[in-house]
């Protein structure tokens, strides 16, 4: 076991030290292990993995035990072993994820001495992260907490009815079963999750609960081509983000050939899962920045606030181990068929990438954020050209790879609208015998909207229950109209 351990790089659950000459750094690591996902701290190993051993290991073991007892609160009791390697003795300290976290250094106090593990380093926890550690032990999620100063009138009930039409009859009992509403001191009030999902004034209460999207020139953020801020209700935000990404990922094919050519240059199935994962698992108690979606020439990055929940590592979630940070939001997404089985999304992303021979996505734990990077199979460069007026304009060459097919569904939709327009969501569903709103949206409406083949009758209110669709000029031409 120790031989294999010595071959591994330092990580979220492993650290090496030459000796105990800097006890404070070692104590911070033990605190971080206990607050994050557990881990092993090995004394007697150099940075290059050369085994040095520990002099006077019995004395050092006793010294370390006393330091831990005197310096860390609540009391931490790790396993300390002496292991011999090549005739030299190592001290291996194993810490498990603690059930009485957060632990902290007594000399620095709870607010200043609480640490978590971030990759192979220790990070001081801010007040929001400390509160999350405390809620985790109490079994309370941030999005399930009541908002006693609000009422049902602070929710967009029309949007809820629209999303659940044909699925559930929306009344107070249903909203309680979804935990969008809870009873608090005799009154029904929204939960934080309810307001995050459907609040009329969400940003008034959660100022960073929105999505920032940008298309950048090149492979860094030095030069931006286009951007949009999305403030839609969370269930609708997925499609709005995808519309933005698709707008910058058109193959540029002649629309008359849409049935024979693939339209998109980005892996939409993967990106959809990544976006849903970000919206469902973001730490909305975190302040400082929204969810960010950055489209570069060679990749798309999705960043969401918050670290992995205690007990989880990146390898765990890639294998399908799942903990739900926001059960209220996750439940609503599940009811709307945006989420399938818990824990299936991220492993599915890697399976899709492998099956379609795409570059493997990566997941990183950054300073207070999770970044999911989806590499593109081919670089999609934006080229800067001079306009007639001497200003700068940008164009994207048609060099994208084929990744996401568009079938005959778009053509069928255009044919239907040619016969009678405008039509609403339910009209189209009935005409095609569709039960799934998600299929209607993904297979018919979103591709046609993104290709500028159909348009809203209420363009300023894309989520209105009165919304209908009609053909654009391009859509008419594709249908053979003059």
Structural overview:
It is a single chain. This protein is of the alpha+beta class and 482 residues long. The chain folds into 4 domains: 2-138, Methyltransferase, Cobalt-precorrin-4 Transmethylase, Domain 2, CATH 3.30.950.30; 142-205, no CATH class; 211-375, Heat Shock Protein 90, CATH 3.30.565; 407-478, Orthogonal Bundle (Arc Repressor Mutant, subunit A). It is built from 18 helices and 21 strands. A 6-stranded mixed beta sheet has the order 12-11-13-14-16-15, covered by helices on one side. Strands 1-2-5-4 form a 4-stranded mixed beta sheet. Strands 19-21-20 form a 3-stranded antiparallel beta sheet. Helix 10 packs antiparallel against helix 11 and helix 11 runs antiparallel to helix 14 (345-355). It is elongated. Residues 251-262 and 385-406 have low confidence and may be disordered.
Topology of this protein?
Elements lengths: L1 H6 L6 E4 L5 H13 L3 E5 L13 H15 E2 L5 E7 L2 E8 L8 E2 L3 H5 L1 E4 L2 E4 L2 H12 L18 H8 L7 H6 L3 E4 L2 E4 L1 H7 L3 H4 L5 E6 L7 E7 L3 H14 L20 H14 L9 E5 L3 E7 L8 H5 L8 H9 L9 H11 L6 E4 L3 E7 L7 E4 L5 E4 L13 H11 L3 E2 H8 L4 H14 L3 E3 L11 E4 L1 H6 L4
Task: List the defining traits of the structure above.
6-stranded mixed sheet; Heat Shock Protein 90; Methyltransferase, Cobalt-precorrin-4 Transmethylase, Domain 2; 482 residues; alpha+beta; 4-stranded mixed sheet
- Kindly state the number of beta strands: 21
Main pleated-sheet profile: 6 strands, mixed
Mean pLDDT across all residues, rounded? 86
User: Distance N terminus to C terminus?
Assistant: 75 Å
Query: What is the annotated CATH architecture of the largest domain?
Result: 2-Layer Sandwich
Strand content range: 15-25%
The helix fraction, in percent, is 25-40%
The assembly state of the depicted protein chains is single chain
User: What value does the Rg take, in angstroms?
Assistant: 27 Å
Residue stretches low in confidence (pLDDT < 50, at least 5 long) are 251-262, 385-406
CATH class of the largest domain: Alpha Beta
What class, by secondary structure content?
Answer: alpha+beta
| Helical run tally | 18
User: Strand order of the main beta sheet, please?
Assistant: 12-11-13-14-16-15
| Number of structural units classed as domains | 4
The CATH topology of the largest domain corresponds to: Heat Shock Protein 90
**So what's the overall shape?**
elongated
